[in-house]
Amino acid sequence: MALIQYREVIKESDIFIKTDNRKAIKGAILSIKYHRTQLERYIRQYPRFLKALQPIRIPQDVPEIVAIMAEASELAGVGPMAAVAGALADLGVNQMVKLGAKVAIIENGGEIAGISNIPINVGIFAGNSPLSGKIGFRFETEDFPMGIGTSSGTVGHALSFGEADAATILTNNAALGDAAATAVANEVKGPDIEKSVQLGLEKAETIEGIRGALIIRGKFAGIVGKLPQLLKITGNSWKILTQRYSNVIPPDFIIL
Q1: What is the dihedral of CA 37, 42, 43, 49, to 10 degrees?
Q2: Do the beta carbons of residue 194 and residue 220 sit within 8 Å?
Q3: Dihedrals φ, ψ of 97, to 5°?
Q4: Within 10 A of 142 (CB to CB), how many other CB atoms are there?
Q5: Angle at CA 163, nearest 5°, toward 66 and 244?
């Protein structure tokens, strides 16, 4: 099946879509723009929501995205903004499914939400780790719906108090994956690298809704829970990372 690829940057949201349904792309982008606007309005009224580093209580009558973020942050024990990228991806995928997409994969700055009736491969970028760009997951149809969140203390602009090259979390939705990845990555720190990875894995086991976790720091990698089949990626890792813009590797790869 030939999939359609589309990328659009919406303020801080760097959106990458793969789907079998061109009409669903427009629906996803409109959904993401709408929910971003709703969130921005809420934050103007309640700025504490933006700055909180711990779960906060919210009233019942709030925009859908606010409720999704608050629920994910409560489960992970972090501030609600830790779930924003994943929540937007989830909402975009939901709209794509309503419009008839059978394959709906959205990556938003490294957080991925998706459903698919065909297998999909996902590669992992982990900064300067020797494993970066070298491994990935193969998601079979029974692995969907899925949500992936990745947090790093060495890559990207997202707030992290840890030192993981990548803490990748698999859940059923990207909002929880996003928030949980932040919580897990925060635990991966200190001079004993092997011990720090173990602490991150232990944290992952305490968060309800996590299906599996992969933590990479330097030459160490740890796995807990049930993850899809691991893949070995060959070739130039930088070209793999930038495959959004080329055809270096097969089009069913997405880089975290």
Answers
A1: -130
A2: yes
A3: -65, -40
A4: 7
A5: 65
Determine how many CB atoms are found less than 10 A away from the CB of residue 8.
14
Rounded to an integer, what distance in angstroms lies between the CA atom of residue 166 and that of residue 178?
12
Q: pLDDT class for 153, splitting at 50, 70, 90?
A: low
Give the integer Cα–Cα distance in Å for 220 and 195: 10
Q: How far is CA 104 from CA 113, 114, 245, in A?
A: 8, 5, 19
Fill in the DSSP letter of residue 61: S
Amino acid at residue number 180: A
- Domain architecture of the chain: domains with CATH: 4-255 (3.10.520.10)
CA distance 22 to 141: 21
* Of 136, 125, 155, 151, residue with least CA distance to 237: 125
- Determine if the pTM surpasses 0.85: yes
The pair phi, psi for residue 231, each rounded to 5°, is: -115, 145
Answer yes or no: is pLDDT of 210 > 50. yes
- The pLDDT score that the predictor gives to residue 242 is 42
The answer to whether the Cα torsion of 8, 13, 18, 24 is positive or negative is negative
Measure the CA–CA gap between 138 and 144, rounded to whole angstroms.
11
Q: Which residues pair with 10 in a beta bridge?
A: 13
Cis (ω within 30 of 0) for the bond into 145? yes
148: β partners = 112, 170
Closest by CA position to 24, among listed 107, 100, 120:
100
**List of residues 6+ apart from 48 with CB closer than 8 A:** 56
Average pLDDT over residues 4-9: 95
